[in-house]
Amino acid sequence: MKCNQKHKLMRISFIFLIVLLFVRGYPAEENTEEETVIEDFFICRTCGNDVSVANLAFDKYTPLALSATNHSFTETRSVLIQEVQNPLGIRFHIFLVKQASCAKVHPWTIKSTWFPGYAWKVCVCPKCHTLLGWMFEPVESATAEQSFPSEAGFYAIIFQNIITEGFVNSLLMKEKALRDN
Ligand SMILES: *[C@@H]1O[C@H](CO)[C@@H](O)[C@H](O)[C@H]1NC(C)=O
Ligand SMILES: [Zn+2]
User: Fold this and answer.
1) Domain for residue 165, yes or no?
2) For ligand 1, is residue 69 a contact (CB within 6 Å)?
3) pLDDT tens figures, 129-152
4) Cα of 50 from ligand 2 centre, angstroms
């Protein structure tokens, strides 16, 4: 019960953060904070920590993608999933979001970037330290003081390492239906 309440509090502060970002991102629109409906949560597949929300997903092609497909996270939200490969030959399916929750890590690097003009660093879950993806920041602003991407940057999330809350809930509903029968 106590644990549940703590999670709820964390969730509320996370929503608040996201809403703040929305308002800052679109100053022309008024009262955005009251109108924003969270479409779905992306959560860490390993520990269930909030990573981002479907509303913050956006599409940007990398010229280095091995393949690309559109994936529907929700009825209204289709997101570009691109397959990329690192110098070790390991392949990942990634999608992009404007904001995500990552632990603070070491400096930016420009070596082997998937997005020309952008430096990167890894995004690991702040709670369980699983690799969630990478953070990207324009090379000019990728300084030591810039720990996380600015508004000009973004996050690439590994599709296999997150799960949506909508999907988790659908599983719980199924399980409950099975138990009730
Ligand atoms: C994904 O959908 C967008 C918009 O509907 C379309 O322009 C694009 O070609 C699609 N991409 C792929 C890889 O199917
Ligand atoms: Zn985690």
Assistant:
1) yes
2) yes
3) 999 999 999 999 999 999 999 999
4) 8
